[in-house]
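Hi R.,

As promised on Friday, here is the backbone we talked about, encoded as structure tokens. Could you run it through your design pipeline when you get a chance and send me back a sequence?
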């Protein structure tokens, strides 16, 4: 009895008959729909960056902003789970760190000093719960901000997420939408879906803009009397490297990224004190800061306006680019 050969996946993209998108350079099958969505996302990102740039130019020479509570470590994983909250990351160019601030300092606080390439003003995190609400800087979202795209509204995103997680049938989706839009649950709704077909089209568009799942087959040979045979196991997964590249290349996450180094100091006497440094995250370490400083010096960009751009090339090597690509591993060895 001849054994069937295991199913083999096409090894080249020419065998898959894929075409390259002119916006994201990915190879996809449905090129027309993919390029339309990529064009919309590129426009949204450009509008968001123009809005942030405009705010940076309008507000200058202000004191460190004071946040109400110490924020936890923000990671791009939070953005995939729930829509991100736009942070006010305006540069305020506090040249004299010992200058008098506009509002009174708390008795105990953490002083955060960002690297100059981050283009962020220093932050003060109070450690006392009695801080007045006036010390908190409000979170402002830009007018072009639409983190739930390609869904039309945030309600569409939440409803689609619930349907996908619960694996609801088409009949159940149509029944819920009919009750919501017919006034059974409320007089009005922010959900724009009319039926399950509208929901499926939006979910399909969202899957194109994100890293999709891949399938890999593993062959396991067992020896024995009862279970001795060859097993074929299909595993579905998402490539973590592709997810990382998506996070790094997303310009809308620039204001909340942690690629730039930080310095944190514990201040206990109601004044800024640099004698008690804190190391609570990788980007607060000295090595992280030294690498970023050496990156700028190696390329001859020592001004405060120098911007560091992170680029990922096809050989999966991290490099920091200002005028020309230079490998980060070269800086470490040097």
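Update: got your reply. Pasting your designed sequence below so it's all in one thread:
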């Amino acid at each position: 009895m001849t054994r069937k050969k295991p199913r083999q996946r096409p090894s080249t993209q020419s065998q898959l008959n894929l075409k390259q998108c002119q916006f994201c350079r990915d190879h996809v099958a449905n090129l027309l729909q993919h390029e339309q969505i990529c064009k919309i996302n590129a426009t949204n990102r450009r509008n968001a960056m123009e809005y942030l740039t405009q705010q940076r130019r309008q507000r200058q020479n202000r004191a460190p902003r004071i946040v109400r509570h110490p924020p936890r470590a923000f990671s791009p994983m939070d953005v995939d789970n729930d829509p991100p909250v736009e942070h006010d990351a305006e540069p305020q160019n506090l040249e004299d760190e010992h200058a008098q601030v506009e509002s009174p300092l708390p008795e105990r606080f953490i002083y955060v000093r960002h690297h100059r390439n981050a283009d962020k003003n220093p932050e003060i995190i109070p450690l006392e719960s009695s801080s007045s609400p006036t010390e908190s800087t409000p979170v402002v979202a830009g007018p072009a901000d639409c983190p739930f795209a390609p869904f039309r509204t945030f309600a569409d995103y939440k409803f689609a997420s619930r349907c996908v997680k619960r694996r609801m049938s088409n009949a159940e989706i149509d029944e819920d939408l009919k009750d919501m839009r017919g006034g059974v649950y409320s007089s009005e709704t922010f959900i724009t879906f009319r039926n399950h077909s509208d929901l499926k089209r939006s979910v399909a568009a969202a899957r194109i803009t994100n890293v999709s799942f891949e399938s890999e087959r593993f062959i396991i040979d067992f020896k024995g009397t009862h279970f001795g045979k060859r097993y074929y196991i299909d595993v579905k997964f998402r490539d973590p490297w592709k997810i990382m590249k998506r996070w790094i290349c997303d310009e809308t996450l620039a204001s909340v990224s942690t690629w730039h180094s930080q310095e944190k100091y514990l201040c206990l006497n109601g004044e800024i004190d640099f004698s008690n440094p804190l190391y609570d995250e990788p980007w607060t370490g000295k090595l992280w800061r030294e690498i970023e400083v050496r990156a700028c010096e190696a390329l001859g960009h020592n001004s405060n306006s120098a911007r560091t751009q992170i680029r990922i090339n096809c050989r999966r090597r991290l490099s920091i680019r200002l005028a020309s690509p230079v490998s980060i591993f070269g800086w470490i060895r040097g």
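One thing I noticed while checking it: The longest strand covers residues 214-221.

Thanks again,
M.
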